């Protein structure tokens, strides 16, 4: 539809929608309505075929936004730049941040500097592990949110979204729905038939069109006539204008170009000249455009080809170098192309329309096109733009055994991977492998290719790493890293036996003692997680002998000592033994984000403190570990595990509401990673445990059904043990026979492996309850065996829980005896929920045996404790028992709300209104984990749930 200075025909409804959105964004309503108290963002999506006027419409959006004082971020996808990672994100955000001193930039981005800086081209990647893709997206979310608030009102405009690079487009498609909660208007335009699969969400994003894009239609005959007369004069007659409309089918781009040709040729716009329009229209596109270009001369054609290869934002000197032209010759060619309405711009060139760029590019003979891409790669490197800028050109060249190409692609892959774009890195390395690399470098390229696929395609990673091991490898260090990485990805793919076997084979042929020790440590770790390990007692003995000899002088030794800690917990050795080894493992440092190491051992050491009744120390270690993850930008599976297991710690402390918040945060992160992963098993199992403790049995059963939580159970050991949790759920639903079978099967699986600690896996306790319905004698024996094991471990929580179960399945005076001892132990433990259960059980038993005064004391205490724990079902049971005893529950008095900080009060107020954590985070511009932590502080201080605070909290 021409330049923005031209009248825009038949887009009144679209522009009215834009004006309405801008009005709500800025508070300047054109309809005279009162502006809202709070600026409201929105998403507008325009869809239409090539040439329909999307670019002109978006130019008008930018102009109107600027006149209203909006900050405008603008980007455009390019057909040639689709393989350049974060190309669009850099166009949008770099101008807002570049030019600042590093100190200012670090202050502005804070902890996100090292995560998003490389992706946006603001700094070089760090030497540490790259961020995961979710962490990077969270970082980009934070940057855009921060800018939207700081420079509000803001308008983000993305043209040709169908050509945006996958990394940027996936991020924006996920972020766009949040615009409505920010002072941000997002406007995108794309060709619907060319939108890639990873951006399908754009088709249904919530926006002003009721969840669908606004489709742009061709111009009517009247609009084409108006456009013709505006350019050519009022004397353009009806027959001429009708023919203009007929030959262009109302396509705005073709119409504008046709009318420009008429004007340039000096044709009279009347019926007598209308018969020439069809030939002129043909010259606007396709073969006609190519023929017109060829008439401009060989040098001009070559310069146009070079520009088409370079894509967008074309620098004339670089285009001249690619075309092989001198400065003056290139300048003449650029002038000719501007005159022919093929190129526009001066210091930076671009094609007048993407349709022209596509036509020119496709007209380049294939052999010449490949050569030009090769020349472009060399010129880009020579111009100082680096291997990442050259890589997209090298992807278009033919393999030729050129080691320079291999080295550039490997360098580009490393840079791109560290910036957080593994898919792009993988494409570069796959191309390097086809070059092919020198024989002696092949294993290294396969290793790099496998590493690039690690988080997204683990099966592919296994294939590449196994292929690398089959190559001759002169560098022992490289071979060791291949083995470590292969065992890691096998283990994380639930193929623990293969991971262990891979290490075992390498241990036999490794001469270096320290390397062998590292591999032994890795093998011990994966075997510790194997549910099908054939000889656990033998491994345990070997691990004990080895760990006792080590001093912990390096990380490998501390990992082995940490594994010894966990083995002691699983086997139920006295808790002080486990704690002794845990402190040894931590003495020299045990970071959660060590390069080339997993986080499993530090997590196991931290959890050992929890099982040994020192959950405060566990939470300290988890806080440090989560900080490590967040600094690295690991916000996918790593952070999911951390939040999920932190929820488990809160659950065991009896802080059930907090536990549910954390496990839901962990589950949301796990769902980003993908279904069926270990992160899912952990999160769903813990969520079911928490719901059962809160008395929400129906909800727990629904969670199990929604997530297919049942057999077959994972090959890896997870905690809480998935099969045991499933049995507990069956028991809670009254399916006692099925529960007994499931729990007995869990015991048959765990017993041979020496996993005998009921503090770690209480399968015996639940089995005893299930057996009590049909075989009460066996139930008592099962419970007393669990009590003996708990006494061997020696923690008050384990002993108290086991004794409560023994009381439940016993009869007569033994019940009260066991319950009184259970309460005495649990009062010395951090297990608040277990104490509440024991108190209510003891009070109930005392009432039934005719001791109402003693019963009341324990029932009141149990009710208070149950409410503090948010154990709704247990609290209701306590109230029923008090009512049966003729007593009324005491009114509970929460801590006064003035103990809350202003941030805690604000967060709690929004939660009391029914807002979810993500909604609160967006509204207050906080990170979601911060919201969860603030809510947890409120629960702790108030001693009640947020839903109970609505009447006491006042907005501030």
TrEMBL record:
Sequence ranges assigned to domain HTH luxR-type in this UniProt record: 897-953
Source taxon at top rank: Bacteria
Gene3D superfamilies tied to this protein: P-loop containing nucleotide triphosphate hydrolases (3.40.50.300), Tetratricopeptide repeat domain (1.25.40.10), Winged helix-like DNA-binding domain superfamily/Winged helix DNA-binding domain (1.10.10.10)
InterPro entries per the UniProt record, alphabetical: AAA_16 (IPR041664), P-loop_NTPase (IPR027417), Sig_transdc_resp-reg_C-effctor (IPR016032), TPR-like_helical_dom_sf (IPR011990), Tscrpt_reg_LuxR_C (IPR000792), WH-like_DNA-bd_sf (IPR036388)
This protein's name: AAA family ATPase
KW Nucleotide-binding (keyword) present: yes
Protein source organism: Streptomyces guryensis
GO molecular function, one term: adenylate cyclase activity
Pfam (any one): AAA_16
Alphabetical keyword list: ATP-binding, Nucleotide-binding
GO CC annotation, single: cytoplasm
GO BP terms in the entry: regulation of DNA-templated transcription
